[in-house]
Amino acid sequence: MPVEGGSSSGSASAARHPKQKRKAHSLSIRRTNSTEERPPGIQRGDMLEGQDSKLPISLRNNLLDLFGQIEREFENLYIENLELRREIDSLNERLSGDGQTVDGGDPSKGALKAKASHSTSQLSQKLKTTYKASTSKIVSSFKATTGSRALCQLLKEYVGHRDGIWDLSVTRTVPVVLGTASADHSALLWSIETGKCLLRYAGHAGSVNSIKFHPTEQMALTASGDQTAHIWRYMVQLPAPQPPPDVTAPCDDDQDSSDREEGEVDGEGPGEVPTVRVATATLKSHQGVVIAADWLVGGRQVVTASWDRAANLYEVETSELVHTLTGHDQELTHCCTHPTQRLVVTSSRDTTFRLWDFRDPSIHSVNVFQGHTDTVTSAVFTVGDNVVSGSDDRTVKVWDLKNMRSPIATIRTDSAVNRISVSANQRIIALPHDNRQVRLFDMSGVRLARLPRSNRMGHRRMVCCTAWNEENQSCNLFTCGFDRQAIGWNINIPALLQEK
């Protein structure tokens, strides 16, 4: 490492001092330049002054060797420092000829600046522009993260499943309840306000991968790994609401939330709750895992998506298979229906998603979209004329139904994206990630917030799905993950948009 010229000369001056005191002993050592040769006939012990020293001659010789090594090291550093200074002066002269200068008196910084300035001015300007843009992005991202505590408050935790939760949904009819689908072969209905489990559906023989509620009746549609989809009725009575939990304590968004052991959950399970074991209708035309299912507008038909690379359209009243939608090259991952039109979108591991149009009974058109480079984990409709797709390629794309040649917005993230959801009123996209985070974006791709995650709140493992509930005057977001719990959040939409 180079040494400053002033400190080097000071050390050399100190090294040439004839005597150096050590406590009560006055041991003076004659310093010689390492380049000087010792006169012949003079032994190492004779170079010590003060013949009253009690040190043995061998020890005195060792001391001389050590001090000589120290002196040579300082001399090498001093020579290296001089060479660096000459190089700096040379570079400064060359830059002065080109009309440039190097500021700063620190030789190490000056050398770095001189070497950087030696490149072309065009490259330097490009680097400055890139640095400024990336810095602005980091700053804006930091602001959004720190403000998310006030914008997103934890509402309730729903704990009771014995395995990971793949999907969740909120009823569209009164009473408004939360439904969760789990790998423990069950689906549970919850009171949103109290977090109490109201009902269990145990009719499936495999993992329950999806749950969706009928638009007007108290019926649920679940898809399962047992290669079937079930339609079943429910009746629940909401308990009296409880005071909201205290969530005013500060939390650290970046704190690792893996302190609890894997599989450990807080709170009590569902206990003895009413259980439904028999389905009203069983849809069983698939030859593989049924990964997702949804109701078409009106609730008279349902669509299912399977790992057998096909999606099926059924009549609810008769359980009759109406259409088999084929064309995907690999397993399907999700399906979604338009809220007001007879449109279906299916996503697949083949990196595409397909739009199926059933508005004309005589024509069933299909469009294929290839905007991703990895598995499309979900594609959902918005209330407007948009489709939002998420992928394992760590991107989310917003498409216009009127012109889907290319996305109108692309959101790039640092983790794979699972089943996304879009709020109906404000059109805010909620992204669940493999890295346990949940982020909120608007339709133009601007990041709004990140849900807090700490030892006291947030998911401890992969977040699988999100779902919105915008009933009444509040806006709630529900998330579920492979940590066996679902979480309800109260989103302050006015403050969120104001921060934007």
Strand order of the largest sheet: 4-5-6-7-11
Reported for the largest beta sheet, the result is: 5 strands, mixed
Fraction in beta strands:
25-35%
Which class best fits the helix and strand makeup?
alpha+beta
In percent, how helical is the residue content? 10-25%
Question: Gap between N and C termini, in Å?
Answer: 48 Å
Q: Could you say which overall geometry the principal axes of the C-alpha atoms support?
A: elongated
Radius of gyration: 36 Å
Instruction: Count helical runs.
Output: 6
Can you walk through the features of this model?
The chain is α+β, with helices and mostly antiparallel strands and 500 residues long. The chain is 20% helix and 32% strand. It is built from 6 helices and 31 strands. It has helices at 5-15, 57-97, 107-117, 121-146, 148-151, 493-499; strands at residues 28-29, 48-49, 152-159, 165-170, 177-182, 187-191, 197-201, 208-213, 219-224, 229-233, 275-276, 281-283, 290-295, 301-306, 311-315, 321-325, 332-337, 343-348, 353-360, 363-369, 376-381, 386-391, 395-400, 409-412, 421-422, 429-432, 438-441, 447-450, 463-469, 476-481, 485-491. Strands 4-5-6-7-11 form a 5-stranded mixed β-sheet, with no helix packed on it. Strands 3-31-30-29 form a 4-stranded antiparallel β-sheet. β22 and β23 (395-400) form a beta hairpin. α1 runs antiparallel to α2 and α2 runs parallel beside α3. The longest helix has 41 residues, at 57-97. It is elongated.
